[in-house]
Amino acid sequence: MRKPFKILCIDGGGIKGLFSAQVLAEFEEAFKTSTSGHFDLVCGTSTGGIIALGVAAGIPMKDIVQFYIDNGPQIFAQRWKMGKLGEWLFTLKQALIKSKYSDKALRNALVKVFGAKKIGESQNLLCIPAFNITTSTPRIFKKDYGHLNQDDNKTFVEVALATAAAPTYFPVQEIDSVQYVDGGVYANNPVLVGLTEAVFKGYWIKPKDKRGPEDYDGVQILSISSCKVPTGDYAKCKDRSFFRWITTLFDTYGDGQSKSNDFFINVIKPHLDFEIEIKRVENTPISCMQAEKVSLDKAGKDSLTILKGIGSIVGNNEKNDPSVIRFFRENKTINPSKI
């Protein structure tokens, strides 16, 4: 591949984004660099969208790690969920009354990190999936370029809240009189979103018969999962109500969507008229005891310690992989301020 279009993709997964941020922090430490400087396009969904926006703002990933550690317990109301009774009451609230959590703590934490920064100030091209419930259509927030002119004046905080508004977990978000929920309802793993953006209307990857020696001739994707927790199940009660499903439903659809995206990509790769390389970074299977402590909204001390520790192990192992080294050896080729 002579000139690759380089994409970073980060999965959704709630507080498990701490794992993803720690992996990237290990890469930054190993290569003495900023992630933003090595990717033309950054994609992220839900918690991955928050991390992607951090990358695009040029924030060191160690600071994003600290964001999760400092704010995770407040965002997910950890102090009120101590013991089974507290968790049960929050689940009851989620199933019958309103969203499990307020967005106040998340909004305040995001303002501390991003301030009033707007998408137009992004240091990378962006694709941040959300879902427009007003029209029931997917919505991808982007750094404006070419014919695009919708999102540069939106703030990082607005977009982060929209992509992370997981149904029943956080309130619906409204931007310019349009309502949004979490992009994880269709793109928890945003690899296909990133690949589509690379080829859309031939703007970056041109058709083969129109491709010149200075044009992009392929795509390289670094895909970072959130910490994978086993979601296999055996239903004793086959006629489950929503209340019985609620504690596992969102992990299940997120995991299923992520795995199906990987499958679709591998099937279509041989049929593309350009080269594509994908490096997927995932954790090795975690123990049963660890799995009991980790889920998308468990933000207690044990969970945070486990997620950061696994992220450190995986990051340190993967930093020696030649395909990872290749991403950080060469700089990005697109400067969004000049397009």
Structure, explained:
With 339 residues, the protein is an alpha/beta fold. It has a single domain (4-328), classed as Cytosolic phospholipase A2 catalytic domain (3-Layer(aba) Sandwich), CATH 3.40.1090. It has helices at 17-31, 47-56, 61-75, 83-96, 104-114, 156-163, 184-187, 191-199, 242-268, 288-293, 301-318, 322-329; strands at 4-10, 41-44, 125-132, 137-142, 173-175, 178-182, 218-224, 275-281. Strands 1, 2, 3, 4, 5, 6, 7 and 8 form an 8-stranded mixed sheet that branches.
CATH architectural type: 3-Layer(aba) Sandwich
Low-confidence runs of at least 5 consecutive residues: none
Q: Indicate the overall shape.
A: globular
> Briefly, what CATH class?
Alpha Beta
> Major beta sheet, specifics?
8 strands, mixed
Number of domains: 1
Order of helices and strands: EHEHHHHEEHEEHHEHEHHH
Straight-line distance between termini: 23 Å
- Total helical segments: 12
DSSP strand count: 8
Keywords: Hydrolase, Lipid degradation, Lipid metabolism
Motif (DGA/G): 182-184
Organism: Paraprevotella clara
Protein name: Patatin-like phospholipase
